C-alpha cells in the first residue's frame, strides 16, 4: 500500500480520503447485490475475474487454465490458483494492480502478512474465513465502503432482473444499470441478426425494418431509465462516425447479409444515440482506442475479454466531426470521451472539450488508471480544458473489492496535483479545496446526473 503523503498534499488527502464513493461507470455484477450471497472463495474473488491479474501472469508463460480461465467452476482448484498468484506476486511490482491488491489485502480484508510464495496458503485461509463472515456480504461491504451510487454496465437485451430485485428489497444501497447497446448497434458484432430478433421480441417492434429498430431502441432506453439508468455506454476501436442520409437502405442491406457498409452504419447509429440522448437525457459515454482480442489463439480458445486488448491511436477531431457538427452545440447533450491513446489528451481531447458544449473528458482509463497516468492526465488536460470540462472519476472495475483502492489512488493523485498547483501559485488553498471536492465527487455527480 502507498505511504503517507506529506505537506500540503497530505493535508488535502486527509480532508478528502473519507468522502463518499461515487462510482458512475463499472462492470460489477448486479447479482452480487440482489442475492447478497457470500463470495465463493479467494480465487474467484481476487484472481479469476480480474484481467489485470491474469494478463500479467500469462505474459510470463502461465497458462490461463492454471488460473481457472476456461475451466468449469467445479473443476477449479481455488487454493492452487491463489498459490500461483503468490508465487508470481513479484511480477506486479511497479504496477497499479500491486497497489490495488495490497490495499485490498491489508486495508479491506486485514491481512498483515505480505503476499508471497511462502505465505499464500496462510493468506488464502485468512481470506476464506473473512468471506464467511456475514458482515462481509456484498451489501454490507457496499455500505462499509461508503458507496453513494454504483452503476453497472448491462447489455441492451438484459432483463435487469437483478436490478429489479434490488429496488424491491429493503436495502437502501443505490445500484443502477447503464445501457450498453453495442451488440445491437454494431452489425459486425457476433449474432447481430439474432440480437435484433430478440430486441423485437422484447419491445413488440418489427426490428427487421429500420423504423421499428429505431423505435425498439427508444423503448429499451426508456426501460433502462425506469430502472434508474442515467447513462449509456459505447465501445469503438476508432471514433469514426458517419451520417447516412438513407440509413434504412443500408439497414436493409445488412439484414440481407451484405456487410459492405457495416462500419458506416455503426458510426451512423452512434449519432442516432446522441440524438436520442438529447431527447431522453441519458448521458452518453464513448470508449475508444482499444483493439480488442488481438491474440487469436486466446480468442478462439477462451473467448472475449481475456487480456489481449491493446491500445491503438485515435483521431478524435475527424472521427467525431459528423456528430459534433450535427448535435455538438446542443448543451442538452453530455458526451463523455474515454481514450487509451494518451497522445490525444493535449492535442485533441482537451481543446475539443474546451470548445464543444456537449463534451466532457473521462478520467484515465484502463492501462492509464495509475498514479503516473493520473498525473499525466492532469498535466495534459487541465490547462486547456479546465476542471469543469472533466467528468470526475470512475473506477470502471469488475473487481468489487478494488473500488475503495482505486478511488483512494485517484484521491492521492488529486491531492498531489492540487498541492503542485498551489506551489506554482495558480490559485489559493481555499480554491484548491473547492476543486478537490469537485474532482472527488462533485463532477461525477453532476456529469452523470446522479444528484
Structural notes for this entry:
The chain has 451 residues and is α/β, with parallel strands linked by helices. The protein has two domains: 7-38 and 135-447, TIM Barrel; 39-134, uronate isomerase, domain 2, chain A (Orthogonal Bundle). The protein contains 20 helices and eleven strands. The strands form four sheets. Strands 6-7-10-11 form a four-stranded parallel beta sheet, with helices on one face. Strands 1-2-4 form a three-stranded parallel beta sheet. Helix 17 (344-353) links the parallel strand 10 and strand 11. Helix 6 (96-109) crosses helix 19, helix 14 packs across helix 16 and helix 19 (403-423) runs antiparallel to helix 20 (429-447). The two termini are 32 Å apart. 44% of the residues are buried. The model has no long low-confidence stretch (mean pLDDT 96).
Q: Count the beta strands.
A: 11
- How much of the sequence lies in strands comes to 5-15%
User: Mean pLDDT across all residues, rounded?
Assistant: 96
Helix content: 40-55%
Straight-line distance between termini: 32 Å
Question: Which fold name fills CATH's third level, the topology of the largest domain?
Answer: TIM Barrel
Could you name the ranges where pLDDT drops below 50 across 5 or more consecutive residues? none
The multimeric state of the shown protein is single chain
Using brief descriptors, characterize the structure shown.
uronate isomerase, domain 2, chain A, globular, 451 residues, three-stranded parallel beta sheet
Sum this structure up briefly:
The chain is of the alpha/beta class and 451 residues long. The chain has helices at residues 7-16, 31-35, 42-46, 51-59, 78-87, 96-109, 120-132, 138-144, 161-168, 182-185, 192-203, 210-226, 247-255, 262-280, 296-302, 316-327, 344-353, 371-385, 403-423, 429-447, and strands at residues 21-23, 147-151, 154-155, 175-176, 179-180, 231-236, 283-288, 290-291, 310-311, 335-339, 359-361. The two termini are 32 Å apart.
Amino acid at each position: 500500500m502507498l505511504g503517507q503523503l506529506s505537506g500540503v498534499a497530505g493535508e488535502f488527502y486527509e480532508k478528502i480520503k473519507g468522502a463518499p464513493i461515487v462510482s458512475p461507470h463499472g462492470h460489477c455484477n448486479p447479482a452480487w447485490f440482489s442475492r447478497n450471497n457470500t463470495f465463493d472463495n479467494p480465487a474467484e474473488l481476487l484472481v479469476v475475474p480480474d484481467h489485470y491479474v491474469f494478463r500479467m501472469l500469462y505474459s510470463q508463460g502461465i497458462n490461463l487454465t492454471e488460473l481457472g480461465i476456461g475451466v468449469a467452476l467445479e473443476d477449479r482448484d481455488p487454493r492452487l490458483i491463489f498459490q500461483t498468484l503468490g508465487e508470481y506476486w513479484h511480477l506486479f511490482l511497479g504496477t497499479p494492480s500491486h497497489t490495488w491488491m495490497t490495499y485490498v489485502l491489508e486495508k479491506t480484508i486485514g491481512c498483515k502478512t505480505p503476499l508471497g510464495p511462502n505465505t499464500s496458503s496462510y493468506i488464502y485461509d485468512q481470506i476464506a474465513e473473512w468471506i464467511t463472515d456475514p458482515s462481509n456480504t456484498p451489501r454490507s461491504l457496499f455500505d462499509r465502503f461508503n458507496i453513494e451510487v454504483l452503476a453497472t454496465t448491462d447489455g441492451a437485451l438484459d432483463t435487469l432482473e437483478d436490478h429489479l430485485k434490488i429496488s424491491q428489497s429493503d436495502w437502501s444501497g443505490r445500484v443502477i444499470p447503464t445501457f450498453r447497446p453495442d451488440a445491437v448497434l454494431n452489425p459486425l458484432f457476433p449474432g447481430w441478426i439474432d440480437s435484433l430478433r430478440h430486441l423485437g421480441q422484447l419491445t413488440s417492434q418489427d426490428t427487421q425494418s429500420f423504423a421499428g429498430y429505431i423505435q425498439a431502441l427508444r423503448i429499451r432506453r426508456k426501460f433502462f431509465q425506469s430502472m434508474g439508468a442515467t447513462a449509456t455506454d459505447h465501445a469503438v476501436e476508432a471514433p469514426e462516425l458517419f451520417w447516412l442520409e438513407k440509413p434504412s437502405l443500408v439497414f436493409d442491406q445488412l439484414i440481407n447479409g451484405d456487410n459492405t457498409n457495416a462500419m458506416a452504419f455503426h458510426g451512423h447509429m452512434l449519432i442516432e444515440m446522441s440524438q436520442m440522448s438529447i431527447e431522453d437525457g441519458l448521458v452518453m459515454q464513448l470508449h475508444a482506442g482499444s483493439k480488442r482480442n488481438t491474440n487469436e489463439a486466446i480468442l478462439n480458445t477462451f473467448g472475449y475479454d481475456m487480456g489481449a486488448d491493446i491500445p491503438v491511436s485515435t483521431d478524435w477531431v475527424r472521427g467525431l466531426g459528423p456528430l459534433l457538427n450535427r448535435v455538438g452545440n446542443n448543451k442538452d447533450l453530455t458526451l463523455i470521451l474515454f481514450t487509451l491513446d494518451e497522445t490525444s489528451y493535449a492535442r485533441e481531447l482537451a481543446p475539443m472539450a474546451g470548445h464543444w458544449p456537449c463534451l466532457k473528458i473521462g478520467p484515465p482509463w484502463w492501462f492509464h488508471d495509475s498514479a503516473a497516468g493520473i498525473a499525466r492526465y492532469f498535466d495534459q488536460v487541465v490547462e486547456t480544458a479546465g476542471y469543469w470540462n472533466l467528468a470526475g472519476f470512475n473506477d470502471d472495475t469488475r473487481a468489487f473489492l478494488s473500488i475503495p483502492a482505486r478511488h483512494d489512488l485517484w484521491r492521492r493523485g488529486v491531492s498531489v496535483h492540487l498541492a503542485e498547483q498551489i506551489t506554482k501559485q495558480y490559485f489559493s488553498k481555499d480554491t484548491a479545496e473547492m476543486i478537490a471536492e469537485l474532482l472527488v465527487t462533485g463532477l461525477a455527480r453532476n456529469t452523470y446526473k446522479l444528484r
